[in-house]
Automatic annotation (TrEMBL):
Mg(2+) binds at E25, D165, N167, D275, H276. It comes from Psilocybe cf. subviscida. The keyword Electron transport does not apply. Residues 512-573 form the GRF-type domain. GO terms for molecular function: DNA-(apurinic or apyrimidinic site) endonuclease activity; double-stranded DNA 3'-5' DNA exonuclease activity; phosphoric diester hydrolase activity; zinc ion binding. The record marks N167 as: Transition state stabilizer. This is DNA-(apurinic or apyrimidinic site) endonuclease. Belongs to the DNA repair enzymes AP/ExoA family.
């Protein structure tokens, strides 16, 4: 699928063939979001962005307007993030929220809570483990907040669906290195799968699922219990997707009573464009309950959508943002009234509110509209601008006429001679030797007062060059000297040519030590002293058991069909070639 073949973002969403679409890692801001992304014609949209750091995190939910309209919607998990004016009690999704303060956990734009009647959807992007103690604590607190919010909803009798990037594996088979972690743990004296479950957030994830004593069902795994390598995320920087060397960290989790509604659930690894792939579920149009009652999905999912009647979405939808309710700047540049005289040249006064001007700049579509509108401005304003330009020219000329009158002789000079007058001295004037100048040449008259009317000596540079060519310093060498010089020059040229050939020659490609195959060159992009330097590593893709080095991989765990641990700086490869004889 080539995403650039679609003309609009609305077309992209339609191509996904879903009524409810959830995104994570939007990596944008409200101000930087294009209008076609925030307001696609066929969908209602909801967003949560970081309140401090921009271009980071962020989640979005799109609902197809002709199929489903949410009942309620909130930003964040804690209930502390509120729009202006604040949500009323009837607009809130829950009556009860986690009891302790968690607003700082909601400031990174990581969750949206949407009430669809049949269930409450939580679209979330859980924090990644960056290796620092501070972020590790933040990650665990966020997972705890998510679990507490789900518990509050279940306590209120609601069914819950949690979707998104949870940044944690739920089973050993969900990790490309899972079995190796278990084997390494056993070698270190650990029991069973302790080598894999030693990370706290994995344990919490396992305990949250029904199989581990929790309340949530991993619906995709339930449909595919024995499927191996069912990964949803890959490190594309090391080419891991080509060999399916990844992890399953993207989930659809349900409370048990929603399971009968699910007709299909799977991943879509064939959909490219990200380091993650989509995960989907398909719901039945209707189900038969245990008492024989038939329940239609359209009757219990969202607000009622009838023919020609589509209710408004909840108030935090993007269509209600202030920047989407105000007039565009182009609306202020309307055509003049027909009753106005066409001969009027007075420039009309334009008054624009501060809000309108700011939003017009922030909105790309509004900016383009204002430009096109300004081009179609009434012609009455054009003469005023022309008059202003002419007035400036007249004022400039007036200043020139106020200068003292020139001498009659200078006024009689031809226009052609005036055109030749230079504004600066010639190069010859700075380099010529006074004693070498011809004595017959009279001094050039100079008008100090005005600087106008000087005669131009067009041959000055030519005469200087002729003089220099006739001086002793520039005398041509004798034939014998020329022959010796030519020999030395040729030898020097050959040496220089060899040096440049070595410098400009492509870096020789070394062979990797594990497979004796040509290595592949990469460039360091990480900030630091080595940024920009080039290096070679094994050209084979990574895979389970690829050689990470002796410090990270036991030798008996190395699978030679994948990348070996070969590494060499490109500069070292060039030095090795230079040391070889004949090079």
């Amino acid at each position: 699928m080539e995403w650039n073949t679609f003309k609009t973002f609305d077309d992209i969403l339609k191509n996904l063939e879903a009524e409810i679409i959830c995104f994570q890692e939007m990596k944008s801001s409200r101000q930087g979001l294009p209008k076609q992304v925030s307001l696609p014609p066929s969908f209602d949209s909801f967003f949560s962005f970081p309140t401090r750091k921009t271009g980071y995190s962020g989640v979005a939910v799109y609902t197809r307007r002709d199929a489903v309209v949410p009942v309620k919607a909130e930003e964040g998990l804690s209930g502390l993030l509120q729009p202006r004016p604040r949500l009323s009690m009837t607009e809130r999704v829950s009556e009860e929220y986690p009891s302790f303060e968690h607003k700082e956990l909601d400031e990174e734009g990581r969750a949206l809570v949407i009430d669809f009647g049949l269930f409450v959807l939580i679209n979330t992007y859980c924090p990644n483990n960056t290796g620092t103690e501070e972020r590790e604590k933040f990650k665990m607190e966020y997972h705890r907040l998510l679990e507490d919010r789900v518990a509050c909803l279940i306590k209120e009798g609601r069914e819950v669906m949690v979707v998104g990037d949870l940044n944690a594996c739920a089973a050993v088979q969900d990790h490309c290195e899972g079995e190796l972690m278990v084997a390494r743990g056993l070698a270190e004296g650990l029991q069973g799968e302790e080598g894999f479950w030693g990370v706290e957030y994995r344990r919490r994830m396992k305990d949250w699922l029904v199989g581990g004593g929790g309340c949530m069902v991993d619906i995709v795994r339930q449909f595919w219990p024995d499927r191996q390598e069912m990964y949803t995320c890959w490190n594309t920087k090391i080419g891991a997707r080509a060999s399916n060397y990844g992890t399953r960290i993207d989930f659809v989790l349900l409370t048990p009573k929603l399971v009968p509604w699910v007709k299909a659930a799977d991943i879509q690894p064939q959909v490219k464009g990200s380091d993650h792939c989509p995960v989907f579920i398909d719901l039945h149009d209707e189900i038969t309950q245990s008492d024989g009652t038939i329940v239609k999905l359209s009757d219990v999912l969202g607000l009622a959508v009838g023919e020609g009647k589509v209710p408004d979405p909840p108030r935090i939808a993007a269509k209600f943002w202030d920047e989407h309710k105000q007039n565009l700047l182009s609306s202020f540049f309307g055509k003049s009234s027909k009753s106005e005289s066409p001969s009027t040249t007075q420039t009309p006064t334009l008054t624009v509110s501060a809000n309108a001007s700011v939003h017009a700049v922030a909105n790309p579509s509004a900016g383009s509209s204002s430009q096109s509108a300004s081009k179609s401005a009434p012609p009455a304003s054009q003469p005023a601008r022309t008059d202003l330009k002419r007035k400036l020219v007249v004022d400039s000329n007036d200043k020139i006429t106020k200068k003292p009158n020139l001498a009659p002789l200078k006024q009689e000079k031809s226009k052609s001679s005036k055109a030749k007058q230079p504004s600066q001295s010639t190069l010859a004037g700075f380099l010529a030797k006074p004693k070498a100048l011809p004595s017959k040449s009279p001094p050039v008259p100079v008008d100090v007062d005005t600087g106008i009317g000087n005669e131009v000596d067009e041959d000055a540079d030519y005469r200087l060059a002729l003089l220099l060519s006739q001086s002793d310093d520039n005398t041509l060498p004798s034939s014998s000297q020329g022959s010796t010089s030519s020999t030395r020059t040729k030898k020097a040229d050959d040496e220089t040519k060899n040096v440049w050939s070595n410098l400009l020659a492509p870096t020789p490609v070394p062979m990797c030590t594990g497979h004796d195959e040509p290595a592949k060159e990469f460039t360091v992009n990480k900030p630091g002293p080595n940024k920009g330097k080039k290096f070679f590593i094994c050209s084979r893709p990574v895979g389970p058991g690829y050689d990470k080095g002796r410090s990270e991989r036991l030798r008996e765990q190395v699978d030679p069909q994948w990348r070996c641990d070969f590494f060499k700086w490109s500069s070292d490869a060039r030095k090795e070639r230079a040391r070889k004889p004949g090079l």
